[in-house]
Amino acid sequence: MWRKRAGWRITGGGDTDTVPTIEEEEEVEEEEQVQEEEESDSDEDEEEEEEEENGVARDPGAVAKEIVVEMQRNGRKDMDASSISNFLGYWEHLVNAEKRAEKQMAELKTELEDSEKEMFRMRIQVQDLQRESIAKTGGMERLQAELSAAYKESEFVRRKLKRLEEELANFKQKNSDLTEELSKKAEIENENDYWKVMELENEAKELTRRVKELEALLSTTRAERDDLKKRVDELLTESEEERKLAQEALDEAMAEKIAMQEKYEREFEKLRSANIDREQKMLDDFEWKLREVEQACKKRLDDKEQTSKQQVREVEGKLTVAEGKLAQLPHLKQCEQELNHLRERSIETQRSLRTATRQLEQLQDSDKQQHEEIQQLKQLLEKEKSHLTTVQSIHYRELAEKDRKLQFKLDQQKTEINSEWEDKMRRETQRIKTESDRHHRTEKLQALDEAKSQHQQKLKELESSWEKKHIACVKEGESSFSVKNVYSLFMFMVRKKVREEADRRIQQCELNAQHQVGASRTTIELVKEQMQRESQQQLQQLSEHHRRQLEEQWEQLVQERDDAIAMIEQKHRSSMEKLRNELDSIYKGKNSRETELMDTLSHMRQELSGKTTQIGSLETNVEELQGNLEVLNCEVNNKAQQISKVMKEGEEVLSSSESSPMRTTMTVLLLPFLTWLVFNSYPFTLFSFLLALALLLIIC
């Protein structure tokens, strides 16, 4: 305003070439800026009204922008360096607060990401455990298949050994038959066949030794077969145990997964509540700071308005003074320079304000991003809340079911106690009634007996007294008949009076007895009511005591449940560590065990292959022995035929020795040579030599 007035007055002076043109340009620019600002202010006011009507929370960046606009609108002509520095300081404070909020949000995000990573890692571990368990089960099935194949091979070997045993028994039978035949032949043959028999016996012994060796090999193979069976059974049991351990480890891992999931859900709930509280606190602090800043800005704006008004007054005074000093043009030029300088400063402040608005827009964008992230977090929190509500509903249902069961038990116990006490009351009232009736009857009888005895005693006394009077009257009135009549009449009256008195007293006693019966009944009713009140009080006391006991038991159960939950959590934590270590050791042990099993299986296969080769070699040996036995039988038959021929020749020689002793001696001497040439055997040659010596001795 003061610029407009100054410009108008300057133009009205006389220097119309330089100063008026600058002021007019400034006025045009200022009018355009004012119109633009008024339009923007009207738009902003409408937006604020719409936001207030819709109940939308105002953005802090927008609030700061509004403050800047108000500062521009209210003090755009008078902004100095101090106001700009104050605004920049406030702006730096807002930026720092925004950075702190972003840092806190980043920390919260990192915590959430860490928890999600931990849950994902646990899920991966569980999946790995499941895959390993599946692989282990496949390995176990493969081992079972291999063991079944080995068992089938052992069954085949067992059948083969059984067949070999049968063949060996047949061989033994044949051997025994051969030995019997040899013994028979040896008995039939001559004593001169001793060496041949010895050789055959040696061969038979060799055969028996071979048979014993085969039996020993058969026993060793049987023992090895039994060992293989034992090892197969042990491997089966070990594989079953390992499968059970793997299943148990899997079940424990699943339980651990569930426990860890619940634990992370609880921790996530705690973090969520803490984050919500922290966000609320930050928003409250930010709103409080914004209010303080708004108050400070309003206060500064009011101060600036007052100072600007004062400056305007001062400038107007100066202008009035300057009107009288129009001749002082250098001073006006200096004022023009100052105005140019102020214009440059205003342009610089506008630029700084534009940069500040850009920064505000950036902050608004970052705020929008943060709001979007907060909305995402809120959605996650809502999901977690829904999950938590489902878990809580399940827990509440379980608690309601437990409460219902406990209430049902309480009702049952109450009904049982009430029935017991009602039975006791019924029995007590019946007993009291019977006792009161018996007591009443006894009292009534006693009262009647006492009244009767008293009346009888009184009657006796009256009778005795009247008898005495009668005797006296009789003694006195024997003289006259009239006295007798009077006496009889008097006695009649007296007796009548006595009877009436007795009847009256009996009625009185009956009335007293009836009153006593009524009193006893009232006392019985009172006692009954008192017993009922006492029983009701006892029932109430017992029910109260029972209720207190149930409450104490319920509190104790709740405490025990909490303690048990805490202890179970502690145990789960320790068991988790133990299970991790055990799983590592189990994995290592399983790997080593698998290698050992593979080695043992390969070793068993090698042993089985070796045993099969041994069995094949034994079969070949048995076949060779069969062939050798056949060859020996043939040789024995041939030798027997040759021995018979030699014996015949010896007999012929002996028969012809009588004619030609020289010829016989020559034949006897040639006999060992002939046996050597024929049999090519040292035992037969020695036998023939000894036979020749014997023949020579016989001839000589």
Automatic annotation (TrEMBL):
List the transmembrane segments: 673-699
Q: Which keywords, in A-to-Z order, does the entry hold?
A: Coiled coil, Membrane, Transmembrane, Transmembrane helix
Coiled-coil stretches, from where to where? Answer: 91-296, 332-384, 418-465, 528-567, 615-649
Which portions of the chain have biased composition (kind: Acidic residues)?
22-54
Q: Per its UniProt entry, which superkingdom is the organism in?
A: Eukaryota
Region (Disordered), start-end ranges? 1-65
Is the Heme keyword given for this protein? Answer: no
**Entry keyword Coiled coil:** yes
**Name of the molecule in the record:** Uncharacterized protein
